[in-house]
Amino acid sequence: MAEIIKCYKEHLPALKLIGKRYSDSDRDAHGTFGGKWGEWFKNGWFNEIEKLGVLPENGDAYLGVMRCVNGNFEYWIGMFFPIETIVPEGYSYTDIPEGDVATCYIYGREDTGELYGMDAHNACMNKIAEKGWTLQNDPWFFERYNCPRFTTPDEYGKVILDYCVYLA
């Protein structure tokens, strides 16, 4: 069972999310975007945008970024960059304003799926509520796949997924 081992507030500057945008119609047979992630690795799409540099606060972490606006869910795969970054051909972008972000470290096994979904989301939302923090209206949420926290399992086969949400 995954657990929240840390919950803290960080501040992000205005940034540019560069990647590709998906909707509910892009989910695979399991209801996830796993197939889209597979396309990213197969097609080397991260290799292209990694050449753009990094946002110091985020490093070179890959991101799954989501929000729901007017009942429409959007899911992005990509990376955060400084606001002035030029977007390469074939990619989309959206600008995200400066703001405070609640970050939860979800500790568990990646191969079981326990780091994802509503149980993990709700555990993070409970930790954030315990801190007395409130979310923005229609906030951005993102999963940050940080290296090495997420990419190098510990002796128990567990990793840490950063689960973040913009605060009011």
Compile the SSE list and pairings.
Elements: E1 3-12, E2 15-22, H1 34-43, H2 45-50, E3 62-69, E4 72-82, E5 92-96, E6 99-108, H3 117-130, E7 141-145, E8 159-166
Antiparallel strand pairs: 1-6, 2-4, 2-5, 3-4, 3-7, 6-8, 7-8
Characterize the structure shown.
The longest helix has 14 residues, at 117-130. The two termini are 30 Å apart. The chain has an eight-stranded antiparallel sheet. The protein is 18% helix and 39% strand. The chain contains three helices and eight strands; from the N terminus they run ββααββββαββ. It is of the alpha+beta class and 168 residues long.
- Helix percent reads 10-25%
Strand order of the largest sheet: 1-6-8-7-3-4-2-5
Mean pLDDT: 96
Q: Which residue ranges are poorly predicted, with pLDDT under 50 across at least 5 consecutive positions?
A: none
The secondary structure category is alpha+beta
Major beta sheet summary: 8 strands, antiparallel
What is the CA-based Rg, rounded?
15 Å
β-strand percent reads 35-45%
Q: Distance between the terminal alpha carbons, to the nearest Å?
A: 30 Å
